[in-house]
Automatic annotation (TrEMBL):
Gene: pyrE
Protein name, UniProt field: Orotate phosphoribosyltransferase
Domain of life: Bacteria
Gene3D superfamilies: 3.40.50.2020
Any GO molecular function: orotate phosphoribosyltransferase activity
Origin species: Gemella haemolysans M341
Amino acid sequence: MVLERKIAKHLLDIEAVALRPNDFFTWTSGIKSPIYCDNRITMSYPAIRREIAAGMSEVIKDKFPEVEVVAGTATAGIPHAAWVSEVLDLPMIYVRDSAKKHGKTNQIEGRLLEGQKVVIIEDLISTGLSSLKVAKALEEAGAIVLGVVAIFSYELKKAQDAFAADKVEYHTLTNYNYLIEEAVASDYIKQEDVEKLLEWRNNL
Ligand SMILES: O=P(O)(O)OC[C@H]1O[C@H](OP(=O)(O)OP(=O)(O)O)[C@H](O)[C@@H]1O
Ligand SMILES: O=C(O)c1cc(=O)[nH]c(=O)[nH]1
């Protein structure tokens, strides 16, 4: 089984994926969705989180070999960034959604030096705006952002456009299409649900 299908299967098996066709979830962007993928659940499964860290590390070695620092996005990207930085033996930082209101008033925590080459670790990409906000904060702090690596993406057209507009490269371990394929193969959903789920995503 290819890694994309394997990770999708793990997300389904640990019930990280929830479907609520009659009571939509609200995403961070405000989008109302019949599906929510809670990748935070992967923290509770050491074998799966190790597979994610190994997968992300391979992507980084392949696509961003000059990386010097791994940056986690607050909050869900932080634990994965920690595990990836351990695999790659690299420094880690994390980036808050906004600057702290007290203490050192940092948005970026950890040591970031001017001109360092950074890869951002995110758990999930919907519109991509959270990742791109982190990329902007890092660039404003003097970093060179090589790209973003995430576990999952809904592959929304608006996310692809936003990453392209900001010239930020991104890679994910799996995505919505693989998740749906795997959900049908594993009998989590029926063929009739597939059309509805794809139509909903394609119309966003
Ligand atoms: O691509 P986007 O449309 O920006 O959405 C994806 C973001 O939403 C979730 O974070 P959330 O805001 O729920 O915060 P958390 O990481 O603290 O749980 C997720 O962890 C991503 O960071
Ligand atoms: O866009 C979001 O906020 C979002 C969607 C999703 O499926 N899972 C998640 O953690 N956040």
